[in-house]
Write a structure and sequence with these properties.
Strand content: 15-25%
Bound molecules: dicarbonimidic diamide
Number of helices: 8
Distance between the termini: 45 Å
Order of helices and strands: EEEHHHEHEEEHEHEHEH
Shape: globular
Number of strands: 10
Helix content: 25-40%
Radius of gyration: 19 Å
Length: 259
């Protein structure tokens, strides 16, 4: 896990004015309200192994271009979340080089041309430290952001993810990444059982199967939000912009009053 000091930089200015301001996002099944101070943006497995040719996803017979539509919306969300000072957590699915954390059931399941640990064009498939297992350049973590390496599909299983959330006082998660019906869903379900409020950003999660994408999102918000909420990233960005504008309107008045 990487977790360096959480210091805003010039590239990553924090909008302090948004801290402790509850924001509301138009979502399904109803509006999602969150406090930026207690909310983390979670980017699940935006790794070369899933999004680029020659990796684990392609070795399973998938068309990796299906996932690439998530990159641009997620870049915009990541930039806005950084500016707003949200906690940012990236996850990477992968295994130790000696495969000691890889259950036989996972190794042998699936109809892969290259199995986990085999040498592919981007290094050993889904092995920690390999080029293919790392996060794509467009969404590379910066100083102060947490990176969780996970051996399973869910972010909580056999990782420090849960401890990090508690340590940082996080109660709500904005969930993004790939794939919607596998690692995103598993993480949302695990989080929901642990009491976290999860908003899934619909255009920032991706599946190799359009039908799974649609149904997986339906499943999150069905039955009154059985696992959480779903909204397009534009609704999240609008909520942040509106809050920034409101804060900007009030700040000069406060400054004048104080002087
Ligand atoms: C899969 C993931 N699909 N990140 N992993 O094996 O969803």
């Amino acid at each position: 896990m990487t977790d360096t000091a959480s210091t805003p930089t010039d590239e990553n200015p924090t909008d302090e004015s948004l801290a402790n301001t509850p924001l509301t996002v138009g979502a399904r099944p109803y509006d999602f309200t969150f406090d930026p101070a207690t909310t983390a943006l979670v980017l699940i497995d935006m790794q070369r192994d899933f999004l680029e040719p020659g990796g684990f996803g392609e070795s399973l017979g998938n068309d990796v271009s299906q996932l690439r539509g998530t990159i641009e919306p997620l870049r915009a969300v990541l930039a806005a979340a950084r500016s707003a000072g949200l906690t940012i957590i990236h996850t990477r699915e992968g295994h130790l080089p000696d495969l000691s954390d890889l259950p036989a059931a996972k190794l042998h399941r699936g109809d892969a041309t290259l199995r986990i640990g085999d040498l592919g064009p981007k290094g050993r498939i889904l092995i920690r430290g390999e080029y293919g297992q790392d996060i794509i350049d467009e969404l590379a973590p910066i100083d102060g952001e947490t990176v969780i390496d996970k051996p399973g599909k869910g972010a909580f299983y056999a990782t420090a993810f849960g401890d990090v959330l508690v340590e940082k006082g996080i109660t709500s998660l904005l969930v993004t990444g790939v794939t919607t019906e596998v690692c995103v869903h598993t993480t949302v379900r695990e989080a929901n059982d642990r009491g976290y409020e999860c908003l899934v950003l619909s255009d920032c999660v991706g599946s190799y199967f359009p039908e799974f994408q649609r149904v997986a999102l339906e499943m999150v918000a069905a039955q009154g939000g059985i696992f959480g909420w779903v909204a397009p990233s534009a609704a999240f960005l609008t909520a942040l912009e509106t809050a920034s504008e409101t804060a900007a309107e009030f700040l000069p008045t406060a400054a004048v009053t104080a002087s």
